[in-house]
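We close this part of the discussion by returning to an individual protein. Part of our work consisted of pairing the sequence of a single chain with a tokenised description of its backbone. No coordinates are needed to read the tokens, only the vocabulary itself. The amino acid sequence and the backbone structure tokens for this protein are reproduced below:
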Amino acid sequence: RMDQALLLVRNELPAQGLRLAALSGSCHQCLYQFLAFVPPSNGSLRKPGVAVVMVDTQHPLTLLLNGSVGDRELCKIQYHFGEFGNYSLVVKTLSASTKTVSCDLVINEGPINSYLPILFAFLVYMGILAILIVGRLFMKIDPVRNWVYKKLNPRETDHLINSELGSPNTTDSVSSDPTLRLRSTASLQRLRSLDTFRGLSLVIMVFVNYGGGKYWFFKHESWNGKLHFPSVVFSRFVFIMGTSISLSLSSMLRRGSSKQKLLGKILWRSFLLILLGIIVVNPNYCLGPLSWDNLRIPGVLQRLGFTYLVVAALELLFTRAGAESGTLEMPCPALQDILPYWPQWIFILMLEVIWLCLTFLLPVPGCPRGYLGPGGIGDFGNYPNCTGGAAGYIDRLLLGEKHIYQHPSSSVIYQTTMPYDPEGILGTINTILMAFLGLQAGKIILFYKDQHKQIMSRFVIWSIVMGIISAILTKCSKEEGFIPINKNLWSISYVTTMSCFAFILLLLIYYLVDVKRLWSGTPFFYPGMNSILVYIGHEVFENYFPFKWKMQDSQSHAEHLTQNLTATTLWVIISYLLYRRRIFWKI
């Protein structure tokens, strides 16, 4: 099968059988898992004992062979098997006098290179990009450009685009080139870099949700440490949501909207997001018709909705007139985007204190206080039912085991049996922190309007600060820090690390798209303009053609990658067509 190799174990020891066990290199402090018993060889017939097992190829493995007599360890081998490879492990005695045992790993048939489809897909997309660049160069030729404009008859759409999400006007000079003039008109109303950032995160999220070619690094990590693509994209989406909150509320307040009216909009939008998450986008549909018995209450949209409610209300209630315009006197001008909002910081710090107290001080039955592990076979199997510690316990206590996610990512490597929801209650606190840091990025854009160097330098400063905090919390270690990076728990170190990267990525996109105008944000700009529609649409139509079809070989990364990239590309095309037709779904 995919991500597996065949291992033939030949036991040439006449006196004893063998017990074969394995340990994944990605499983921290785990117990060895029994794979097979290899019978002893038949000395009279000179026939070795044989056992055939399938081994995982996603991560390095440690194979342990113990003799059936006295359970003595005979040999231990560390090896990273290749997909669809065929291997033999030959166990024999080198010397009858010393009874020295040798274990030799032999490659009978070499593995395939399962990463070649990624290289091929990359070359295909680079070819498409090259064609688009050549086409853009042709567009600079006056006769060609005039002919294309005459045929397409483009209409101005940006004045209708999500009008609630305004952004500071820019006063940059506009080139006489019609293409640049069209883009400058858009920038007067909205920063393209924000939609590009959102669209980039969304496109990767769609690709990952569709399967990511079934590659392990496009799946959620089992527990601590390695930051796979799914862990990065959701946090970026939360971050840019916070940035948009700052810009949109500022825009609406400038236009004279009352705080009471805006609070009503915030409540309604949050309610719709939560409702859509529970009823429309619910993974428990795979268990049959949705009913209260198996309704998953937490979820991605639910967490986004609640986070939006808290952060937007916090910004609305404590925003100060004249703060972003610079009319208020500040004791420290360098902190003008922070000091006027000190009540917000107090509130966020209080939330973090609550998270720390619940995580490390709440007694959890049968588990050590402050436990942050995956349970199952982790921690040498001492706490099999303690998955997620306090976070898992709170969800199971308040929501019930049947109303949370039933197949956490830790169940594969750590063989956990307890349900655990990565979008649970306790982790929402740190999601609010992530959105609040994105809100801070929006305030920087507002306070330093058109001051590109100031904006980018402050993005760098915030990134460095978050990086330092992450280094302290994790001790620059995967497992040994005070608070390891963990997306399932949404630990503080995870938030600070992701916000460090988010500030840097936003800086790069802002520089390329809005400052230097070297990139229009295409194609990510278009799904960023219709993010809710694309997200819900890709979930609802996931199992429908042309987003999914019956494969000839379901054990092929190439076929899965082709299907998943095709589906993701289709949503980018759909979002572009909707953009051209001025169709934007907002709630």
Observations:
- The chain has two domains: 4-109, 192-320+346-581.
